[in-house]
Amino acid sequence: MKRNLVTAFAAVAGSQVLILVAQALFSPLLIRVLGPTTYGEFGTLSAGFGLLMILVSSGINGGVRKFIAEEHESDTWKSNVFAYYFRLALIFALIAAVVLVLAAEFGIVGMIFSPKYTPYVYLLALLVFAAQFREYVRRALMGLKLEHIGGMLNVVYKITYYVTAIVLAFLGYGVAGVFVGQILASMIGFVVGFIYVSKSVSLKSLFQSTPSDFPRRELFNFNHNSIVYFFLLKSMYEFDILMLTSFTNSTLTGYYKGAITLAQFLWLLPTALQGLMIQSTSDHWNNDRLQKIEELATRSTRYVLLLMLLLAIGLGALAPVFVPMYLGVQMEPAVTPLLILLPGTVGFAIARPLLTINQASGNMRTVIIATGVAAVINLSLNFLLIPQYGMLGAALSTSIGYGSLPLFQAWGARVLGYYPFKNARMGRISATAILSASVIAIMSLSFGATTFADLGLEWLGILGTIPISILVVPPLGFLLYSLIAIATGAIDLGEIFEILVKIPDPVGSTVRPIKRRFEASKQFGNEQSRASAIKLIVGLAAVIVIVSGAVMAAGFPLLAMTPFGSADEGVLGSIVDQPPSPPSDSSGPSYNGTVGLTPDLTPSDTSTPSPTPSSPTDDAVTVPTPSDDGGSVPPPVDDTTTSASPAGNTTTTPASPINNTTTTAAPPANDTTTTTAAPPANDTTTTTVSPINGTTTPPSTPAPGTTTEDDGLFEFQLSDPTIHVG
């Protein structure tokens, strides 16, 4: 099969789809097995290891992919490039492993984070070698334009890693089991990839010195410049996790790690496209074909933006239902940071193709400046907001940092001589997003968390437990979004056919006759057809809104758990009165587990003294029976006791400010007068008078020493009432 950019993208994207499927299947299992706290510990160690590997491998991997892809007159060029960077990879991995072992031995890890992380560092020292060479051979394969092999190598690694890690974690090995799974999977990936690389380069070059005319300095300079660049880039999605662990606790870190993992799922195709750009544009830069580079950048930016907006709108609309179903109910606090992260995730995805195109120019100074400014913004905001606002501060800081990245990369592109947003159709894409987001949100809210089982269709089994919105909103939302995008001109039908026909068979062969009929027709692409499409879309949107309104009127969201609370409470009541209980962790301040807005201790973290039960001698006062049917004393305080009369009227009598007593006026003659001891200040006690014999029934109170929660936010205890029957 002849290689072109579309077929190469299809190969890489195909492997990325398989990786996404593997992640979608295995990630929630791993999170459920580990639990939020242990998953937070794993996330902290992974973030630190990721930053370390930037220093160890980023320049090497980027260099071998760039320089091995270039065509030179020398037949040994590719072999020499592979051998030169292989030796550098070995030296850097050895240095990193020694540093990790020394940091563990001398207690540096325990001082920076916690002593509980120290044993894992020895495993990370082994993982340095395994991960270094697995990724090195994969990048070499991509530089040799064997993207389909490099992509499948990544699939094998991901599946092996997840299966091994989940099994070992389930057996009780926890974080250590996860890292052992990574080491084993990386070793398998390296062996398989090395076999394929040996078919394209001479392995003898590994044991021979490079020729005297080999440009070692150029390759090495690209290496250390790339290290700075990748470190700045990687810091944008690692520092937030490390800082969140330092300022809060592992539980909140686990929630945030779950949210950012879901958000990064959206980078599937942008990452695949980014992986192709450096070898696809290196020749264009060498031959100064700026117009071709601008065309590639503009089109890739537009396609990525269209796709990312669709995914972000769908995930944002379904997040309150999808996150608890997918990651588990214990991960429900991850919903709020996920929603905050989505706008920035879209921005980072837009920047991904530009990052690689700019890097391929070889002008690393401009790329480093553009990336560094965004990284500094991200780091500064994290430092300012995380101590005050917990995981919400981390989400907001990261989202702003992500969103600034495409702006600075566009500035870098203009410095390099091309305009990436020249024909990106930003206005049309914005209109597409706004129109479709409104309807998709209405659809999602109309169904809430209602399942088929709630409608009495228990015979559907497991399918019946899935929220209806998860099954209905994605296909209808995709159809509506696609039609709006075509109608607004954000993308043309001709462009869609142009992409589809280049995809390998059977897709390409199926689409070609349709494309020919499309090109022969004069009814597509003109203003009349576009106006007709807009009318069709408006009609479809109206139908969806009307049906959604009918669904909401039928009370679908109230049949089961709503996105914000239970059906019995109602949506607003659940938001105000029943927030989830915050997590408790003795290792750090107790943040609000749902939103992470304040580092103040929650009421559950402070002790509430129990009031001393009132003595019958001191607190009980008997009131003579009045001649009328219920008078009132002027209220000196806020505490009141309400008693019902036989006729249904109520009489309010204030509590005494002197001895904490509440005196209830007697009902009509021949009735019994009851006096109750007042509860703690500012609380209200309701006493009901029987319409039959006038006896007064005291309110039900918990047993002595028990604690009652009024709304999940505060705790108090009620003293036992003292009742005197006259």
Write structural notes for this entry.
Its main location: membrane. It is a single chain. With 726 residues, the protein is mainly α. It has 3 domains: 1-226, no CATH class; 237-252 and 264-424, no CATH class; 425-551, no CATH class. The protein is built from 19 helices and 9 strands. The strands form 3 sheets. It has a 4-stranded mixed sheet, with no helix packed on it. Strands 3-4-9 form a 3-stranded antiparallel sheet, with no helix packed on it. The model is unreliable at 557-726 (pLDDT under 50).
Give a brief description.
With 726 residues, this protein is mainly alpha-helical. Helix content is 63%, strand content 4%.
Helix and strand succession? HHHHHHHHHHHHHHHHHHHEEEEEEEEE
Classification by helices and strands: mainly alpha
Shape: globular
Fraction of helical residues? 55-70%
Identify the strand order in the major beta sheet: 2-1-5-6
* Domain count: 3
- Number of E-type strands: 9
Taken as a percent bin, the fraction of beta residues is: under 5%
Detail the poorly predicted runs.
557-726
Give the end-to-end Cα distance, rounded to a whole number of Å: 101 Å
What summary fits the major beta sheet?
Answer: 4 strands, mixed
Provide mean pLDDT, rounded: 73
Radius of gyration: 33 Å
Counting H and I runs of at least 4 residues, what is the number of helices?
19
